[in-house]
Design goal:
GO molecular function: thymidylate synthase activity
Family: Belongs to the thymidylate synthase family. Bacterial-type ThyA subfamily.
Order of helices and strands: HEEHHHHHHHEEHEEEHEHEE
Strand content: 15-25%
Catalytic activity: dUMP + (6R)-5,10-methylene-5,6,7,8-tetrahydrofolate = 7,8-dihydrofolate + dTMP
CATH class of the largest domain: Alpha Beta
Distance between the termini: 35 Å
Main location: cytoplasm
Number of helices: 11
Low-confidence stretches: none
CATH topology of the largest domain: Thymidylate Synthase, Chain A
EC number: 2.1.1.45
């Protein structure tokens, strides 16, 4: 039995049994608890859930997108990664230039109105094609504002200078591993209110070195347990591997601290289905040796021996 994955399943059960029913920004509704923590020993295996299939390639391309400092979805679309499409699409259909069918509340309407769902899929397909082919359109509507990649790599100071937090923390890990300041934050109070398509959910992370092993703790202010958290667990565990590789360290733990940990009301059946499944042994990963973190491509990161149950689909709340 995987101790790592069991923690996630226990969290699901805890929120189902003890969560408060709350309203939320998306008007979907949640069961929510405040304050939870999971610890993943990366020596056990790579914590990619086995009780449902999680698309590892999407995790890799998104993380490299962050690491490269990119904030435009074109890179993701070029790697067949659609996980940020809805937020860019929302900006487009709410703009004065959009003249197509009414797309108000498209996420929820597409679930219950078959005719609208067909319209939505057509509009989304057209939008994605324009992002890939039209540079001007891509610059205006493919960019999500100063989200994760911008804050990690190009934090803008009040003096107009840029701070590369990720490079700085790697330098610090190499030169002063016992420092208590190995921190990267994506939560920029100046950019949150108006400029970001989605304020950062995984807001701040800190590295820690002991006995030649690198550990990382993430504080996540808002945690979509069924859809988002499995990606977050795998993404930051992968980041630990990549940073450890860059700094000449072994991997230790990934500690995941959650603020508002919630299950959306339209994910309840999916969570219960997942909880009915048995776990498999965790997979492992391989990273191309001798390559800088900032030069890695999706082909440099390989998942090994991944066995899982089938995926479970669920709607995303935008």
């Amino acid at each position: 039995m995987s101790v790592n994955e069991q923690q996630y399943l226990d969290l699901c059960r805890h929120v189902l049994d003890n969560g408060e029913k709350k309203s939320d920004r998306t008007n979907t509704g949640t069961y929510s608890v405040f304050g939870a923590q999971m610890r993943f020993d990366l020596a056990e295996g790579f914590p990619l859930l086995t009780t449902k299939k999680v698309n590892f390639k999407l995790i890799v391309s998104e993380l490299l997108w962050f690491i490269h400092g990119d904030t435009n979805i074109r890179y993701l679309l070029e790697h067949n990664n659609n996980i940020w499409n809805e937020w860019a699409f929302k900006r487009w259909v709410e703009s004065a230039e959009y003249t197509g069918p009414d797309m108000t509340d498209f996420g929820n309407r597409a679930l219950v109105d078959e005719a609208f769902n067909a319209q939505y899929k057509q509009e989304m397909a057209t939008f994605k094609q324009r992002i890939l082919e039209d540079d001007v359109f891509m610059q205006q509507y493919g960019d999500l504002g100063p989200v994760y990649g911008k804050q990690w790599r190009h934090w803008q100071t009040s003096q107009g200078e840029a701070i590369d937090q990720l490079k700085d923390v790697i330098h610090s890990l190499k030169t002063n591993p016992d420092s208590r300041r190995h921190i990267v934050t994506a939560w920029n109070p100046e950019d949150v209110p108006s400029n970001m398509a989605l304020p950062p959910c995984h807001a701040m992370f800190q590295f820690y070195v002991a006995n030649g092993k690198l550990s990382c703790q993430l504080y996540q202010r808002s945690a979509d347990i069924f859809l988002g958290v499995p990606f977050n667990i795998a993404s930051y565990s992968l980041l630990v591997h990549l940073i450890a590789n860059e700094a000449g360290l072994e991997v230790g733990e990934f500690i995941h601290t959650l603020g508002d940990a919630h299950i959306y009301l339209n994910h309840l059946d999916q969570v219960k289905e997942q909880l009915s499944r048995e776990m498999y042994t965790l997979p492992k990963i391989n990273v191309t040796a001798g390559k800088s973190l900032f030069d890695l491509t999706v082909d440099d990161i390989t998942l090994l021996d991944y066995q899982s149950h089938p995926p479970i689909k669920a709607p995303i709340a935008v």
